[in-house]
Write a structure and sequence with these properties.
By secondary structure, the chain is an alpha+beta fold. It has a single domain, classed as Sandwich (Immunoglobulin-like), CATH 2.60.40. Helix content is 16%, strand content 46%. It has 2 helices and 10 strands. The strands form 2 sheets. Strands 1, 3, 5, 9 and 10 form a 5-stranded mixed β-sheet that branches. Strands 2, 4, 6, 7 and 8 form a 5-stranded antiparallel β-sheet that branches.
Length: 164
């Protein structure tokens, strides 16, 4: 009876994990800090994109994330992180790494403004392998590291989809 119970428990665990992995995902954004004015994603490497892309039909080689801020605390160093969820098997999600990286995409276009800084910060989301971004639901979080003392609060989040 022991192997049957273990098998049933294993199937139940897989069902629960699969159910939790299917949480609703909606492309969009969250502007959390009062200094965050807009956040956009694009395949174009520009000063700021004309339009915001929430869905990419084919896996691009890179996606740029632009954050426009006004009067953000001057001592905050902005960093970004990325997460991807997909429809791969539960086992594939547990043993496979994200294979993604977020890099600073050039000089920040920030200037002194009021009691803080204003302008645009740009990050690039790239696959670690150098290929194309895999299909899935992407969440990019931009957070402030105050005075270099560690991860501070999230300033904004962007949600977008790369198609199958």
């Amino acid at each position: 009876m022991g192997p049957v119970v273990a098998l049933c428990f294993g199937l139940l665990l897989v069902a629960v994990v699969s159910f939790l992995g299917r949480r609703g995902f909606s492309p969009g954004e969250e502007l959390i800090s009062p200094g965050a004015q807009d956040i956009a994603v694009s395949q174009k490497d520009t000063t700021y994109p004309d339009s915001d892309t929430l869905r990419f039909e084919e896996g691009p080689e890179v996606v740029y994330v632009y954050l426009r801020v006004e009067n953000l605390a001057a001592d905050d160093d902005l960093r970004a992180s990325v997460e991807r969820t997909s429809r791969t098997s539960v086992l594939g999600r547990m043993i496979g790494g994200s294979g993604l990286r977020v890099v600073d995409a050039g000089e920040e276009r920030l200037g002194a403004s009021g009691g803080g800084v204003s302008g645009v910060v740009k990050f690039a989301v790239r696959p670690a392998s150098g290929r194309r971004l895999p299909a899935g639901n992407y969440t990019v979080a931009i957070y402030a590291v105050s005075g270099g003392a560690g991860e501070g609060g999230v300033v904004a989040r962007k949600y977008f989809v790369v198609g199958d």
